[in-house]
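Example record

The entry below shows one chain as it appears in the dataset: sequence first, then structure tokens.
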Amino acid sequence: MTRRARLIYGAVGILLLLVLWQTLVLVRGVGEALFPSPLGVARGIVELVENGVLLTHVQVSLGRFAAGYFSACLVAVLLGLVLGRVERLWALIDPVVQLLRPVSPIAWAPFIVLWFGIGNAPAIVIIFIAAFFPVLIATVTGVRSVAPIYLKVAQNMELTRVQLIRRIILPAAFPTIAGGLHLAIGTAWIFLVSGEMVGAQSGLGFLIIDSRNTLRMDLVMAGIVFIGICGLLLDRAVRLFEHWVGSHWGRGSAGR
């Protein structure tokens, strides 16, 4: 499917969503105060933009997300490259990872607030935890799935460890790692908003809670809309990065 066709289908999908939303508003008939219409939410967004509130909250949330997500990806990829190559070490660490991975980052919130206080740090730590495990497991899986013939060729060429990782392991494992990056984007963004609802005084999550407390459901829905928009843009950014790396390593199929 061409890019233009994707854009057309995407626009039609969003239009259908708006129609369904407006239909539900009319069917329920509970009033704008309880279930705002798309037009009411649009007016709320304009109000937030004119007040400068929306841009501030979006910037704060994206800043926290960038700090937590990129640090988690860096640590997870580096650690995954080591654990994927050292089988006995991964056998030792794997049960610990599988024990901690299902625990929701929000479950650690009481300890995180006690250890890091109130502000940006708790949200960043929650994002780090949410993004770390998907990327770590994807990296280990990708490294362990590299075809042995590639490693034998590298050995015959007498590549150093750094050259082995850069020229053989990372290009071969990247499609699997990219899957972990995509998964981490979604989970980290979800838990960022949850973290901001718990102990932050700014960000999109705080905007939703603050608007709920003042019974401004149109602003609540506006916050939800921008959470979805930001999540979509972040996912597309990862896809572009994946395509660029795939092209750089001569693996154009990796970006699809």
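Notes for this example: The two ends are 11 Å apart (CA to CA). The chain has ten helices and no strands.
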